[in-house]
């Protein structure tokens, strides 16, 4: 049996990037999925997945739109078992001293409205239906910027640190009924867009020249991650059968940023090329 057979999930920001990869993985594992996004995006490439997928066009910063997404998902599939808060925007590394006071204030409001308030509004809208489920789960997309500096500018980094707090607080408040966890992807080649108030609304992260090379040099695995690389962790956390005792946890999926130390790791590379000799001793 697939891990999510008979389960129903709602994913915000599920029309592209990591959200779309999660939607595709959930569908492959037997779930029915509702998606809340500003546009249907790449969902057209999936089709209706034999009637197991619906798209709701709306704004995650609107409580009414989050309620609408929950209602339409439940109307279509009869219940809600999993809520995934994933919609987000980026600040494209805009530094503090690059702002004047007015720009900083408006940009802060915009990024926190999507990256933090949007998660809380979605969670609040989902709670009544999740409480009816047997083994419900909430999962939030964090980021390596929820733990480390230089994964974005101060606005993005602050917003993702805030999401870590959201995960922990909601895990406490909603226990023992609802499990709440997060996934913290590292640098991933996606269509993540920027802050509209800064003129970044049409910027796409994956279009930055050399972005994959930049990402691959920052983690010990020397790998630029793709959206599908993270989807299995959302699947694990969504499945009550496979993560029943897990709550209040953020799983880092970042190529090992936490162990990169002060120097670039080279042992694995040298082993692979034969430059490092291993003395296995005598038997």
What are the key terms here?
283 residues; alpha/beta; 8 helices; 7-stranded parallel beta sheet; Rossmann fold
Low-confidence stretches: none
Number of domains: 1
Give the beta-strand count. Answer: 7
Shape: globular
Order of helices and strands: EHEEHEHEHEHHHEH
CATH class: Alpha Beta
Architecture, CATH level 2? Answer: 3-Layer(aba) Sandwich
Classify the fold: give the CATH topology: Rossmann fold
Mean pLDDT: 93
Q: How many DSSP helices? A: 8
Helix coverage percent: 25-40%
Sequence of strands across the biggest β-sheet: 3-2-1-4-5-6-7
List the helices and strands and how they pair.
Elements: E1 8-12, H1 17-28, E2 32-37, E3 53-57, H2 63-77, E4 82-85, H3 101-130, E5 137-141, H4 154-174, E6 179-185, H5 211-216, H6 228-238, H7 240-243, E7 250-253, H8 267-273
Parallel strand pairs: 1-2, 1-4, 2-3, 4-5, 5-6, 6-7
Helix pairs in contact: 1-6, 2-3, 3-4
Tell me what the structure shows.
This is 2,3-dihydroxy-2,3-dihydrophenylpropionate dehydrogenase. InterPro entries: NAD(P)-bd_dom_sf, Sc_DH/Rdtase_CS, SDR_fam. It comes from Mycolicibacterium gilvum (strain DSM 45189 / LMG 24558 / Spyr1). Keywords: Oxidoreductase. Belongs to the short-chain dehydrogenases/reductases (SDR) family. The protein is α/β, with parallel strands linked by helices. α3 runs parallel beside α4. The model has no long low-confidence stretch (mean pLDDT about 95). Helix content is about 35%, strand content about 15%. It has one domain: Rossmann fold (3-Layer(aba) Sandwich), CATH 3.40.50.
């Amino acid at each position: 049996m697939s891990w999510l057979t008979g389960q129903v999930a709602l994913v915000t920001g599920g029309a592209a990037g990591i959200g779309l990869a999660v939607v595709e993985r959930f569908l492959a594992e037997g779930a029915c999925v509702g998606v809340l996004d500003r546009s249907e995006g790449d969902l057209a490439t999936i089709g209706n997945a034999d009637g197991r997928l619906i798209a709701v066009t709306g704004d995650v910063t609107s409580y009414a739109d989050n309620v609408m997404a929950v209602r339409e998902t439940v109307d279509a599939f009869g219940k809600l078992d999993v809520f995934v808060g994933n919609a987000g925007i980026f600040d494209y590394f805009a530094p503090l001293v690059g702002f004047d006071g007015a720009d900083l204030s408006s940009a802060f409001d915009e990024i926190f409205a999507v990256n933090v308030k949007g998660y809380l509004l979605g969670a609040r809208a989902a709670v009544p239906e999740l409480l009816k489920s047997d083994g419900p789960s909430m999962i939030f997309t964090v980021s390596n910027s929820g733990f480390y500096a230089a994964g974005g500018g101060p606005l993005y980094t602050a917003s993702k640190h805030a999401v870590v707090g959201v995960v922990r607080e909601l895990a406490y408040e909603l226990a023992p009924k609802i499990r709440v966890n997060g996934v913290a992807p590292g640098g991933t080649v996606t269509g993540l867009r920027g802050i509209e108030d800064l003129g970044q609304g049409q910027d796409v992260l994956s279009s930055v020249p050399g972005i994959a090379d930049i990402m691959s040099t920052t983690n010990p695995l020397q790998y630029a991650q793709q959206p599908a690389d993270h989807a299995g962790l959302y699947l694990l956390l969504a499945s009550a059968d496979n993560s029943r005792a897990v709550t209040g946890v953020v799983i880092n999926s970042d190529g090992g940023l936490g162990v990169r130390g002060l120097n670039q790791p080279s042992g694995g590379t040298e082993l692979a090329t034969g430059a490092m000799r291993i003395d296995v001793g005598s038997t």
